[in-house]
Amino acid sequence: MTEPAHVTRTRASYDTIADRYAEAHRDALAGNPWDRAMLATFAELVGTTGPVGDLGCGPGRITGHLASLGLDVFGIDLSPGMVDAARRACPGLRFEVGSLEALPLDDGTLAGALAWYSLIHTPPEVLPAVLAELARVLAPGGRLLTAFQVGDERLSVSQGFGREVSLDAYRLRPDFVAELLTGAGLELEARLVREPLPSEKVPQAYLLARKPA
């Protein structure tokens, strides 16, 4: 089966910038109380009910934070370069290479799934299948938290952290993502849209959903 072009380009781009990206974002949570609050809520709701997957984990900064909150968490990312960076940053945690479009996980294995800005490189027409895949790996009663930039634009990115890259980034409407979550068989529990911080250009959204028991 031929890999979709957007997957190939996204992997290659993040491999190119992995180390610089990891360094630039290493301490980003310290200046973002909204992110910390949503992650803490997610961690409290999931608790010790089972494993949690940070899906599209990048260099592992959120994976490590969730582990510090007491979750049994591991990370999966499309980019081998990002996975290498995550393993160096969090040597006590498990990280592996994998795609959101075909997760290397059995049905119903996760108590929690995090898609933290990891849906933004998926074309909107492909998102229903990706969210169905995330729902597939959740156990009954499991929760999914996703975060993304608000809007309806497609941005073509050719430069990142001083390197040439080639990938698209999509801003998404919360109502659109909420409908897709419902279509994937999940129940929306919470929605937060906040104004941008000084370092951001557009509002940011967080959606929390639950797989029916």
Automatic annotation (TrEMBL):
Q: Where is the Methyltransferase domain?
A: 54-142
Task: Tell me where on the tree of life, at the top rank, the source sits.
Answer: Bacteria
Return the broad EC class.
transferase
An example GO biological process term is: methylation
- Supply the alphabetized keyword list: Methyltransferase, Transferase
What the entry lists under CDD domains is as follows: AdoMet_MTases (cd02440)
Family matches, as SUPFAM superfamilies: S-adenosyl-L-methionine-dependent methyltransferases (SSF53335)
Enzyme Commission number(s): 2.1.1.-
Its name, as the record gives it, is Class I SAM-dependent methyltransferase
Give the species this sequence originates from.
Answer: Amycolatopsis melonis
Lineage of the species this protein comes from: Bacteria, Bacillati, Actinomycetota, Actinomycetes, Pseudonocardiales
